[in-house]
């Protein structure tokens, strides 16, 4: 049957990855009807939600997995995938298991995770550092130290797009790297406002202050435009999730040669396991409902996982697949994943509301040099205190 | 020849108090470069440049290749004219998996715009007519509500309207979208039509009533034929508004009905590495072409219609 | 007199003008169900902590307290105030000046008018994109001026938090003044020719005639124009998204975007509704008394 | 007696403003009634009520003894002609005439017949194919009358049909309307604020002021014996000259003393005897005053301020008893400003009003 | 003799349309000149040229012997009053009067003096604080005149100042303008299409038709001896009665034979002798015809079609020589339609025009 799938994967690498999913699904004798909406989740999500609540749901839809679809599930609008999961043994194969936990509400599974996206990466342009005459840094501190040299060479040290989620994400990455996994969990999982106001986090804010200074002058909006600055050597580096790798690939750059990736900013090799998942609205159409099951299982199919994740630059959700084709950076990620150095992503831990407030805060912080780290931290602590 | 001679003769003989006429005669000489002309035309030309500059940049850019754009001067004319960006924008640009550019949404836009424009104008003109000529109790109250509603941000109304459409069972259909456009076009259009009809001589309406024409007969046979200008205004406002709408088109329909602007948004907002400015500009112009055409075709009537309708508050 | 005939009985008030009432049903439904109903619905839910879906968990004024504590809301309001005030003033002034120039019996009037009006036919996505580009320091006007030799020239309103709202204003004016000009022109054409003559005989200079005599006479047009501009200003959203997405930071945020973001991105409907309620309240405070004077109050038609 | 149109206790308010208050009027079959009054007095409102174009607040309206208070305009058997012609601009003259009949689904043959007849009567046959915009004012108004004519109704309502025409056309069409009435013999109600129209056309005139009928009588009565000060001042151009004074009785004669001048009003046919000391207003029409001619009454001297030669006659503005007054003399006798004239006043055709109640004495 | 306003060879075209063509006119100091003509004949255009509100195509304009052809309106020493009043709506009456002076930087004391004087003359002192929208039509027009008055100019231009007023007010203001002229004694040029205004106000009338002056003379000449058929028909209400016929000479007498009836025109003071066989138009004014009275001339019988009693006099529409004609009789003598009357015509005051050239014979 034809199944309309909505998502917001429209950049070059993303689109190529989606094509793999579609190919695999079409191979099952069904048809993937693509419903891409550009402009990231911000544009797409209201459309998806209106359609589901409006009674004209699509066959399947992407969400960041975590809490974005919680209420739709509670309202009984989303389909329970427990049967498929049972049949296909998701509990066993999906690693880390926290991914499936995010899909689980009151014991039932409502989504099919397709990838693991980790935020904690620093992407560096080898060419830029060569031009500036400094060695490619091995960690955040070296990067900060190299900044003046880059600037002198007319290179923006740190590329940072204007979209609010990028600023907020960069801060989270800094937090894991500088304050460590435990503090991260204290703050975001336990919502401990005291820790959030404490000295550990103050350090993180100071680092963010550095980042802010280094990011001055990157007059771009979209994350991939920022990545493009790194690709073309106009910027030294970018803190961005592993999806940035897709752009490097599309541009024909080679990990280790043209660019360098530092997981956990090279300080603290921990990665978060957020990612994308597909949700399946309840449909009346018998045939389509069947197709939904097929799609769900196709998504977790090992071949699909490999093909998709290679293109997308993300990590597969199952550990039992062969990623021989994985490149340098992906391998680093897989290693960390294997070591179990993982944390949950903020999408999973915080409500979208708190996420948005956080984004507002960091978006302002990174754009407004007159906002002191102390003030920002105070507001940050307030947000954490109010989070649920 | 003869005539001229005679005239000048007459003029010189024709004297006041016997003395020859002198001093200024005929039209006051006007220099083309008078101060007034310099100010008036100078300002207009400078202002026109401000208005035309973006259009110029759009066109020029859309005719350049990406390498040329990367080199930099956005104002420079294209060294090598290429229509590839136009082709790409129209037929090749990708959104997710669909790589058929704007062409995909074009007919949808037409299918949405035509009925929406017709129905929203029909409904609003009847409203305006009823308000202006058949003032019933409470009509002013409803009208005031409508006017205030012109200020409500559309986003606020998305949820209530989703609920209403769902209850009506037209969510996701073209019908639903047409209803939405009709609803949101109603405040301003009703204001326009009401003022226009109120400006028509009331006696015409009375005469028709004495002649036995009822509500609809008067509307169709008397009022409509007299209201072309205001209908043109309404049409232009609606065509531009509905054609350029993105939010409703995407929120209240399903992908097979997505209008051209969804594609435009996708082209403009889905960035593949560097923004393909030339394609964006071509897409932009292509999308704007329909309202622009409508506008150029009926521009004169537009101003006349505004003069007739909108002006009396 | 003779017995009761059909015409002697006062018919039911509800049945009088029946057709008109039937024809107005769409309008009444829209006004009452959609706009009024939607507004009431919005206000009611603004007192709840609805997240993704509307739910009736009342939390009193919590959402409002949070709203007014949010720096972004404050910035949005300030921006709207600045943007609103300036675009009202500038559209009216520029629109009027242009209309006055066009009214000088000039040649090529049609051409000029078309040039000024065409941006109105383009969507905000387009406007935003073009101007984002023209104002981009790397490609746009700044780089051109610099390449002409004025190295220190700096014009990057979209990337400077202090003036970003003015950058948006430039694009907004580009799109909107043409329409204002047309409205004003129509108004000018409606002014009694004799007034001009009287002023000329009195020896009143042109500009004084405009300022002291003509403008006060154009109250009707100006009000209609105000409604149209103001309703556009309050709703401004697309333009900001297309040009800056509210950036840099939160420097160009506007209320309509706050509403949208909190309703859909933050999935906090209650907060979004509270914000929209505040917007509606402001609008109502300004508009209702005016609308009542203008349309209600038993005034004669027209 | 059965009236053609009867209005009983008619009241009409717009919101708080009461325009008509318990108005009664009966109009006979075939009568030409003119509603005369200054702007805003409610003439159009009354006519619109009769036509059914306004919903009355209270009262009843009968047309041919049928209570039509709540009937639709088209069912009342009336035709109406408006000041601004109100022709349908997009229709040809023929279509304008036939529109109402077509709406009423009258058979085409009948429509053609009636249109032809109306065109015949009004001499607009050559114009039938034209649009209203291609007609002159007078032609337009003729078409507008035609539109009422084809309806074959018994009651015609005219709302200032001639106000938009210039003086010359006005006097021509006036004659035509009069002729039309004489040949059709149906009831006509005609609103105007032009007293010449009222006087020349009406069988009876109803003079209105702020929604109240001040006097309802035939033109000569209205002209010669106005019921009150308002009617007296309203009718007649130039206006009646008024002198405010006090009644005096001397030697069996009555006088009105105004600013030192005593007017002998013994000849005045008062309804109630004039009381000495009563404050009164003496009214004299400009054409009832004889200049430098022997007349019936006493003779007064006055100075000419201004003269207005109007072709057929000459209007003199004089000062008498400290007041400005006008006198109309026939022919082309000229009196330069400053010259003195001798006036003889005929009190038999004067009017005297109580200064307080303003009613005729 | 030096003229106050002289127009020499004035031409004006709007694009291809020539409205005025080589027009000449001289207006004396203190003269009241009325431009009379039907709508669209170019009266306003001429006035606007004199005021400097329109750029002339050719010709010259002198005001007080100063060539002002290229001067700005404000420098021409003129004041102008418009039909639509053209008051500045948002300013008080006082401001309306003083605004032009303030702009010209006249000292405040002087402004106050002039405004006070104008308000005095026009009796609008109590209105000074009001807005134009709070005034009646007549009051507005008075203010508009005041605005010209305060400019202290020698030439006043009026463009149909009274057309928007109702008949009553019109006759009142007419007198006031006349009075104003008598006291100010400045030059006034007054455009109107109302012949009563022209006849009563003018020292001289210029009758215009399609931009050409047909006759320029004092009112009595225009009325009694119209230069051509147009002027004859245009002046006088009701219009002059015209009979088209042929000249016959019999027994030393001249006749105009019209449809079987021969009018004896021997008494007519012809400028050039009437030629037998010549086609002519005989014009008779309604008030020069006596009804059932012994008159100077012959007696004819006619039937009454319609009568129009107008208060002071009675207008009869008769048929004579197969043609409709009107007769005005004084007083209130009534002739019901259908009755026969005997007319006596005085050919001494008739007009005869050549049927081809339409000029007076
Ligand atoms: N729709 C309305 N609402 C409120 N008041 C009205 C309305 N129509 C008329 N009036 C008022 O009713 C009064 C009578 O109006 P009407 O039109 O009957 O006057 P009129 O005698 O016909 O005057 P005119 O000679 O100017 O036509 C006026 O004072 C007018 O202001
Ligand atoms: N601006 C213009 N452009 C073209 N033609 C014009 C213009 N103004 C006036 N006319 C024409 O010039 C002629 C004379 O106009 P004008 O206004 O002088 O007439 P008028 O005698 O004042 O008439 P009215 O009594 O109607 O005021 C008319 O035929 C008119 O159509
Ligand atoms: Mg009226
Ligand atoms: Mg004129």
From TrEMBL, chain B:
GO cellular component, one term: plasma membrane
Domain ABC transmembrane type-1: 106-298
Localisation: Cell membrane
Membrane topology: Multi-pass membrane protein
Annotated transmembrane regions: 38-59, 112-132, 141-162, 168-193, 214-237, 281-303
Record CDD domains: TM_PBP2 (cd06261)
UniProt entry keywords in alphabetical sequence: Membrane, Sugar transport, Transmembrane, Transmembrane helix, Transport
GO BP, one annotated term: transmembrane transport
InterPro entries: MetI-like, MetI-like_sf
SUPFAM superfamilies membership: MetI-like
PANTHER family, sorted: ABC TRANSPORTER PERMEASE PROTEIN, GLUCOSE IMPORT SYSTEM PERMEASE PROTEIN GLCU
Similarity comment text for this entry: Belongs to the binding-protein-dependent transport system permease family.
Name this protein carries in UniProt: ABC-type sugar transport system, permease component
Automatic annotation (TrEMBL), chain C:
Subcellular localization: Cell membrane
SUPFAM superfamilies in UniProt: MetI-like (SSF161098)
Topology in the lipid bilayer: Multi-pass membrane protein
Residue ranges occupied by any ABC transmembrane type-1 domain in the UniProt entry: 77-292
First-listed, main subcellular location of the protein, grouped into a coarse class: membrane
Transmembrane segments: 21-47, 80-102, 114-134, 163-188, 209-234, 273-293
Recorded GO CC terms: plasma membrane
Sorted UniProt keywords: Cell membrane, Membrane, Transmembrane, Transmembrane helix, Transport
GO biological process: transmembrane transport
Family indicated by similarity: Belongs to the binding-protein-dependent transport system permease family.
Protein name: ABC transporter, permease protein
TrEMBL record, chains D, E:
GO molecular function: ABC-type transporter activity; ATP binding; ATP hydrolysis activity
Species per Swiss-Prot/TrEMBL record: Sinorhizobium sojae CCBAU 05684
Subcellular locations according to the entry: Cell inner membrane
PROSITE patterns: ABC_TRANSPORTER_1, ABC_TRANSPORTER_2
Domain of life: Bacteria
Protein name stated in the entry: Nucleoside ABC transporter, permease protein 1
Pfam families membership: ABC_tran, OB_MalK
Membrane topology of this protein: Peripheral membrane protein
InterPro entries given in the database record: AAA+_ATPase, ABC_transporter-like_ATP-bd, ABC_transporter-like_CS, ABC_transpr_MalK-like, ABC_transpr_MalK/UgpC-like, Mo/tungstate-bd_C_term_dom, NA-bd_OB-fold, OB_MalK-like
Residues annotated as domain ABC transporter: 5-235
A GO biological-process term: carbohydrate transport
Family note: Belongs to the ABC transporter superfamily.
Cellular component terms (Gene Ontology): ATP-binding cassette (ABC) transporter complex, substrate-binding subunit-containing
The entry's keywords: ATP-binding, Nucleotide-binding, Transport
